[in-house]
Amino acid sequence: MVDGEALGRAFVQRTPEKWELNQYWYSAATIAAIVKEVEERATKAAFLSTPSVYFSLKDLQLRKCSFVFDVDAQWSRSPNYVKWDFNKPKEIPEAFHHSFDFVVIDPPFITSEVWTKYAEAARLLLAENGKILLSTIMENSQLLERMLDVKPQVFQPCIPHLVYQYVFFTNYDATNLGVPNPEVEQ
Ligand SMILES: C[S@@+](CC[C@H](N)C(=O)[O-])C[C@H]1O[C@@H](n2cnc3c(N)ncnc32)[C@H](O)[C@@H]1O
Questions:
Q1: Which subcellular locations apply to this protein (predicted)?
Q2: pLDDT band at 125, cuts 50/70/90?
Q3: Which of 15, 20, 49, 113 to mutate for ligand 1's pocket (most ligand atoms within 8 Å of CB)?
Q4: What is the pLDDT of residues 20-35, one digit of tens each?
Q5: Which of 79, 128, 179, 183 has the most CB atoms lying inside 10 A of its own CB?
Q6: Is 54 near ligand 1, meaning CB less than 6 Å away?
Q7: Where do the domains of the chain lie, and which CATH numbers do they carry?
């Protein structure tokens, strides 16, 4: 039996963070928590700039149906990698439009300009009543509520090399994320 954090730990260990792409991986335990959340809720998920979570999915059926969208072509050998630059949200191939029931988002920046583009991409990808799980700073709370109707959750991500404390937001009742993360001081 593979322990819940093993795949996340393996991803983090084999994938150095590239500072020029603002790559900050979640901790192995945070990856495991988000994998659990997505695996319980999704049948087909889009991972926007969240490769650590996609590559740590344990549910092989979900992994086969889901896609990771990121500008870093290091994953281009994976058939489920889509090279995507958030500056061109409309360039997402039409075959993907409104075809996902879940998106996970962690952009490389926290500004409203960048969030506007990620929100546009999320709306393009999600089917009706699709679920959203994203991370950013708490100060973006009102902005994100307006854009994507998401609310902050108690469980916060541990991102070991990032100086800010991020918060998870969802547009649905995420009971698994209603408890504090023991890795994060609150
Ligand atoms: C803050 S990291 C988020 C990673 C996430 N915490 C994880 O553990 O998977 C930002 C991500 O955005 C990606 N990225 C950087 N520039 C991008 C761009 N122009 N378009 C799309 N993705 C980009 C990076 O490659 C990285 O995966």
A1: Cytoplasm
A2: very high
A3: 49
A4: 999 999 999 999 999 9
A5: 183
A6: no
A7: 6-177 (3.40.50.150)
